[in-house]
């Protein structure tokens, strides 16, 4: 799997910007987990792909570092004002569509490659997560965690990748990442 090809796929899928970064350069921060524990996103302890179900930051860091590279991508949406909540929700919806489209393209192009896709926000594939029913994930093939749930700083990632992240008060940006390059066990 080639990083340049992944960037091209991301742009074709509708991303506004994309770049490859080395996972060794990614920082992990407990503060993001603390924000999760405060239930900022309203999904704490209610989703298989979010904390605490996904594990401790140290465990997630090992999972990420098993992949040498990550392809970071960003979507952007203009807003009518910095209080345009409907515009932000519409931007999040478009970003989710770009993410799922990109995932499907990667699976078709590289069926034998292992990847770890991370998105903006917690998994929302199922209307009600099986975690709430103490049952296994119903869609592990489509389920995803977020960059922030893994303890990564999305703004720092964008800066490290050379992707502009401050585009003004009337633009909202969302970030996803696909980790790749991990050797499959023989």
Q: What does the secondary structure layout of this molecule look like, with pairings?
A:
Blueprint (H helix, E strand, L loop, with lengths): L2 H11 L3 E6 L7 H8 L19 H9 L3 E10 L6 H25 L6 E4 L25 E2 L7 H8 L9 E10 L6
Parallel strand pairs: 3-4
Antiparallel strand pairs: 1-2, 2-5, 3-5
Helix pairs in contact: 1-4
Structure, explained:
The mean pLDDT is 90. The protein starts with a helix and ends in a 6-residue tail after the last strand. It is an alpha+beta fold.
Write a brief caption for the model.
Helix content is 33%, strand content 17%.
Key traits:
single chain, 186 residues, alpha+beta, five-stranded mixed β-sheet, 5 strands, 17% strand
Rounded radius of gyration (Å): 16 Å
Task: State the major sheet.
Answer: 5 strands, mixed
Q: What is the molecular shape?
A: globular
Order of helices and strands: HEHHEHEEHE
Order of strands, widest sheet: 1-2-5-3-4
């Amino acid at each position: 799997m080639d990083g340049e090809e992944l960037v091209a796929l991301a742009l074709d899928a509708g991303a506004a910007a994309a770049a490859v970064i080395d996972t060794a350069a990614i920082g992990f921060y407990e503060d993001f987990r603390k924000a999760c524990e405060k239930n900022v996103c309203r999904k704490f302890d209610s989703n298989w792909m979010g904390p605490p179900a996904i594990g401790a930051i140290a465990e997630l860091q090992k999972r990420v570092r098993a992949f040498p590279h990550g392809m970071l991508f960003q979507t952007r949406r203009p807003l009518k004002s910095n209080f345009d909540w409907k515009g932000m929700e519409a931007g999040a919806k478009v970003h989710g569509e770009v993410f799922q489209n990109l995932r499907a393209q990667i699976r078709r192009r590289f069926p034998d490659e292992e990847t770890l896709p991370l998105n903006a926000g917690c998994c929302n594939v199922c209307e009600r997560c099986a975690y709430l029913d103490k049952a296994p994930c119903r869609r592990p093939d489509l389920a995803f965690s977020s960059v922030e749930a893994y303890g990564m700083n999305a703004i720092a990632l964008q800066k490290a990748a050379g992707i502009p992240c401050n585009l003004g008060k009337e633009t909202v940006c969302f970030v996803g990442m696909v980790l790749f390059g991990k050797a499959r066990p023989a």
